[in-house]
Write a structure and sequence with these properties.
- The protein is α/β, with parallel strands linked by helices.
- It contains 15 helices and twelve strands.
- Helix 1 packs parallel to helix 14 and helix 3 packs parallel to helix 4.
- The radius of gyration is 20 Å and the shape is globular.
- The structure holds 1,3-dihydroxyacetonephosphate and iron/sulfur cluster.
């Protein structure tokens, strides 16, 4: 069956082609690099120089020789790039692209918590503002949270923030009792119930299950898995960890418990495998604020710059550098 484009579709496709061509030209003029998170819309992922998870994108930002970094992701990610690269111009195509998880802790909240636990080591998930990172001893991502916590003196109290589900998973995996966890959550991942996983796994009994540690279902599901001895079918991973696992695993089907944007890369890099989203509506509206038009405007108008005051950046950088040194 041949499908023909109607006029509106043709015009839209021509507009997209023109935008892509101009973005590539402006990228050269500005000596810019485009970084995109794994949850970005497909057309943004496809035009980016690097697509990855929070950790991978921080590393790319730190290593780039470009003058300008255009960060197609959410605000805390662009801030992390600005902290790591004070001499670069970091742009985000939409300043409103925030993160519900990063918003779940304020500086005042952290300072009060620290005052209640003097001497405790503060471990902050990368989904936090620069001000929170500046008050932290270590930063961590979903890709290295376990490693970071394991590296800390077992006799030291830990304040882990802001994600309660990631924190609970790390606490469970390390068996660490002296770890206090902030009660923050990501509205996209918190909504997933273990029943949704049970249903999908019943429909696809041979599938591997890829779960992001921000998922609300994770700890209850691990309890069930332990009872049923099905641990081999489950992989808890960052978004990049999921891509690596899908490429390396002999499995042909995967149930994916994270934001739907990741399906684009999973399918693109594994055309012979099937990826089943845990829920169709698992979409982060902040990640989806970045469009081709806004990326184009960012490059043409050299907007919107994300910067962090140097005193805050210097303290925040220490927590990120300690993380990078460990994993
Ligand atoms: P990753 O670092 O695993 O890509 O996660 C970032 C994020 O915001 C997940 O919601
Ligand atoms: Fe933040 Fe959740 Fe969106 Fe990730 S998916 S950027 S944690 S709101």
């Amino acid at each position: 069956m041949t499908t023909t484009m109607n006029n509106t579709e043709r015009q839209s496709s021509e507009r997209t082609e023109k935008l892509i061509q101009e973005i590539n030209e402006w990228k050269v003029k500005r000596n810019a690099v485009i970084l995109a998170h794994n949850y970005q819309i497909p057309v943004i992922q496809d035009i980016a120089d690097f697509v990855g998870d929070s950790l991978g994108l921080s590393r790319q930002a730190a290593a780039t020789k470009s003058d300008v970094i255009v960060f197609c992701g959410v605000h805390f990610m662009a801030e992390t790039a600005a902290i790591l690269c004070p001499d670069k111009r970091v742009l985000i195509p939409d300043l409103e692209a925030g993160c519900s998880l990063a918003a779940s802790i304020t500086l005042e909240g952290l300072l009060n918590w620290k005052a209640e636990h003097p001497g405790a080591i503060v471990v902050s998930y990368v989904n936090t503002t620069a001000a929170i990172k500046a008050e932290s001893d270590y930063c961590c991502t979903s890709g290295n949270a376990l490693q970071i916590v394991k590296s800390i003196d077992p006799d030291k109290e830990i304040l882990f923030l802001p994600d309660v589900f990631l924190g609970s998973w790390v606490k469970r995996m390390t068996g660490r009792e002296n770890m206090h966890i902030w009660m923050g959550e990501c509205h996209v991942h918190a909504a997933i119930h273990p029943r949704a996983i049970d249903e999908k796994m019943k429909q696809h009994p041979e599938a591997e299950l890829l779960i992001h540690p921000e998922c609300g279902c994770l700890t209850p599901y691990l309890d069930r898995v332990a009872r049923q001895d099905k641990g081999d079918q489950l992989k808890v991973a960052s978004t990049e960890g999921m891509i690596v696992r899908a490429c390396q695993s002999p499995a042909k089907q995967f149930v994916v418990a994270t934001e739907e944007g990741i399906l684009h890369r999973l399918k693109k890099e594994n055309p012979d495998k099937e990826f089943i989203p845990i829920a169709d509506e698992m979409s982060c509206q902040f990640m989806k604020m970045i469009t081709l038009e806004k990326l184009h405007a960012a490059l043409v108008n050299n907007q919107f710059q994300v910067s962090v005051p140097e005193d805050v950046a210097a303290k925040a950088r220490l927590s990120i550098e300690r993380m990078v040194a460990i994993g």
